Amino acid sequence: MTIDPKEAANALGAVAVVERRTREALYYAGASSILILWGVAWAIGHAITFAAPTLANAAWVVINVVGTVASLLIGFARSRRRARPWDWRLGIAFVVMIVFGMFTQWLLGGAQWREISVFWAVLVMTSWIVAGMWIGRFFILSGAFVVLVVLADYAWGGAWFNLWLGTVGGGAMVLGGVWLRRVGAGG
Amino acid sequence: MSTPNELIHQSMRLKIMAALNVLSGEAQLDFTRLKALVGATDGNLGAHLETLEKAGYVAIEKLFVGKKPQTRIKATSAGRRAFAEHVTYLRGILNGGGS
Questions:
Q1: Which tens digit of pLDDT belongs to each residue from B5-56?
Q2: Assigned domain for B1 exists
Q3: Is A30:B26 a contact under the CB 8 Å cutoff?
Q4: The model's pTM
Q5: Is residue B53 part of a domain?
Q6: Domain ranges, residue A43
Q7: Contacts with B4 from chain A: Cβ below 8 Å
Q8: How many domains does chain B have?
Q9: Is the N or the C terminus of chain B less surrounded, counting Cβ atoms within 10 Å?
Q10: What range does the domain containing B39 cover?
Q11: Which residues of B touch A (CB under 8 A)?
């Protein structure tokens, strides 16, 4: 059997394309659970904020802690399907982002609840978009879409701000997660 | 230098092995997902999987999830080794190792 350099290059190119697609599908399957989780958490958090503002702070602390721990566990569990081991830098990057957000919120202590909500949503979705540059374009598109939803709500939501953010923002995340589950390599 | 593996070098089988090799040891891909990843038809994928299974490069599990039949595939350790050796061989050609 004789293989010339051109044929070898073509074969290696085809291998690289399939490897990239497969990794992307595995990431999508893992991300779908995380997106659905945060979509539901968002909907619950904003519904509580809308209906019972005095409970909002306590509710968000619980939601953020449970959501962060659950996201890290899902990321770790899904990474076991890939031949490459779990990269702890991803988990650390996630924690750094949360700490950065908390520090900034403390620094700008006078901010109103609406601004804080927008800040956190944009911060998380910006990280999602940045991750998309390595993982896949769906992350970039879905992150940008949620940021637009949040900013539109901030500009025009008025008294319905939290309800809009919970239903449209949370709903978009759940739908995105369901779609990712269909295209990802789950199981 | 390693030698070429004619069985794996066939373009569709090379893609199948590339996809399965990304998964960790015991992880499987279902038939439909694998078909989409490598861009094959049902019949084409089935025939190539049979060839790879006979060579001991993949393991195929057929089961029912509810009432729906499902076929799951994973690369065996022999398959991973053969794939890695063939890729090394191809890289060798590009690095001037000849064929």
A1: 999 999 999 999 999 999 887 788 999 999 999 999 999 999 999 999 999 9
A2: no
A3: no
A4: 0.73
A5: yes
A6: 5-183
A7: 1, 3
A8: 1
A9: N
A10: 6-94
A11: 4, 6, 9, 11, 14-15, 18-19, 21-25, 27-30, 33, 37-38, 72, 87, 89-91, 93-94, 99
A97/A91 Cα distance (integer angstroms): 10
The number of folded domains in chain A is 1
Strand partners, A82: B23
- Chain A and chain B share a number of CB contacts under 8 A equal to 80
- Tokens at A21, concatenated: 């697609």
Backbone angles phi, psi at B63, to 5 degrees: -145, 170
CATH number at B19 reads 1.10.10.10
Residue type, B51: T
**CA triplet A159, A164, A168: central angle to 5 degrees?**
170
In a domain, B16, yes or no: yes
Assigned domain for B56 exists: yes
- Residues A13, A11: Cα–Cα separation, whole Å: 5
Q: 3-state DSSP call for residue A52?
A: coil
The minimum CA-CA distance between A23 and chain B, rounded to whole Å, is 7
CB A150 within 8 A of CB A165: yes
